[in-house]
Amino acid sequence: MLKAIQISGFVTQRWSWRPSVLISTNSKPFSSLFKLLPITTIDSSISTLPRPPIMSFHASSTPQPPSLHSAGNVKNIKFCQWCGGQTKHDIPDGEERLRAICTVCGKIAYQNPKMVVGCLIEHDNKVLLCKRNIEPSHGLWTLPAGYLEFGESAVEGAIRETREEANADVEVISPFAQLDIPLIGQTYMIFLAKLKKPHFSPGPESSECQLFPLDDIPFNSLSFSSMVVTLSLYVEDIKAGKPKFHYGIINKRPGTSPSDIHAYTLDHHMHS
Ligand SMILES: [Zn+2]
Predict the structure, then answer these.
(1) CA of 152 to the centre of ligand 1 (A)
(2) What is the CA(64)–ligand 1 centre distance, in A?
(3) Torsional sign, CA 7, 116, 122, 165
(4) CB 166 within 8 A of CB 133
(5) Which string of DSSP letters, residue by residue, matches 57-70?
């Protein structure tokens, strides 16, 4: 289940990847598998974007205050999760970020990003979407996806979420996209999958489930930017011949509303 994703009280762009340092395709094993793209903005017209064969990037980031490094506000952690003692907020020795530190047992409450897992289900040249029956983004369309649980692999979580939200039994075919959203501390891992049987129906968190031809995907009624990115990349790949594997960082454009699902850039985009 994915009950609270991609909602943030502020939006700003933390990183700016600029093509200034050329990376040899022989210098990093990764570059033999992926092509790095410079600043790229994806929207439903992604198919028109150029795909340079060799890329370069340079992280010209400006250090941000610790509060901008995490979606969570560490100051909201007022009590220790282990002993219940009161916390203080300080930067521990040897670290750079503000942490909540227990004044009784001394433990530090580290905050780390969460992984969201889901399936992009292909069936008869269509993709399966669910209309959300819960907030946020109630009434908008999404791929079946949600938070990975402890003890699960990413694949197991994606299959479970699909069963919960679409009552569909799927076989995972391959990874399709890893999308980081640093601002809100989330990483999406989306898998391509197919229905084991041609049956699906809305689970408790969905009001409808529907197969959409690629030309009819409701890009203006999707729930989150991550869904716009994933489905845009998928449509582009299929039109070009076959799906690739993608990595990218979704950054909201500064000054835009979190609810504006098209107001983002896909930075540091790499694909197989
Ligand atoms: Zn404690």
Answers:
(1) 28
(2) 29
(3) negative
(4) no
(5) --B-PPP--GGGG-
Q: Over the stretch 223-255, which tens digit does the pLDDT of each residue have? A: 999 999 999 999 999 999 999 999 999 998 888
Find the 87 Cα to ligand 1 centroid distance in Å: 8
Number of residues written out for the chain: 272
User: From ligand 1's centre to the CA of 2, what distance in Å?
Assistant: 30
Secondary structure of residue 270 in the 3-state scheme: strand
Helix or strand run (H / E) with residue 120: strand 114-123
Q: Tokens 């092509």, residue?
A: 35
Which two three-digit tokens encode residue 46? 């992604």
Query: What values do phi and psi take at 235, rounded to 5?
Result: -60, -45
CB count, 10 Å around CB of 115?
16
Q: What is the per-residue pLDDT across 25-68, written as a single tens digit (0 to 9) for each? A: 222 233 333 333 333 333 333 333 333 333 323 232 333 333 33
Sign of CA dihedral 168, 173, 176, 180: positive
